[in-house]
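mind reviewing these tokens:
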Amino acid sequence: MTKRTFFTQIFCFSLLVFATSCQNNSSSSQVDDGGRLRGEFIPEPDLSELVIDLTSNLEEAFKQGDMGMVAAYFANDAVILGPDGFKVKGMIAIQDYWGKIKEPLDWDLSVSAFSRNESVILGNEIYRKWHNKPPDWKNVVGEKLKGKRPLYQMGHSKIQYKTDSGEIKISDVDYVLIWLQQEDGAHKIALHSFALN
């Protein structure tokens, strides 16, 4: 069974569980599908396969050690924001950012919610419970989103890699991604904002 097929089965099962819970208890809106797609939201059918593909492809590129391919999922003018004013902007800087990881081990990029509507992310129960929120992105990419149909994605990211000295490092963060469809039809990351929690 391929990874994509497995995620698709999880997604379909989550919808079945959600529908059943609504029938049994109309006051309950929480869906638990094992962690990949969860939260107080109804996944948008037209986006579910896209999110599964993008997320699993990012994970696979990292696990195969192809940092160039990971960077290629970012738009040329993409921005990465992190704690304490951390900022990476533009393809060259993003390639350098990912290129510093010489021995990648694993990347678990879980998805808590996704939507074309930013308010679905900001109003999500999991997002609201994050003690540290990812840095605000509106002043950074707000203008480039006008007239577009951005895809917002939030979740938890756990990256494991080995340093030159052999030490295993773990990057454990909560994140928000904003994907934008490019002229060639491909979806690429315009904004990656993350926080430590």
Remarks:
- The longest strand covers residues 168-181.
- The chain has one domain: 44-195.
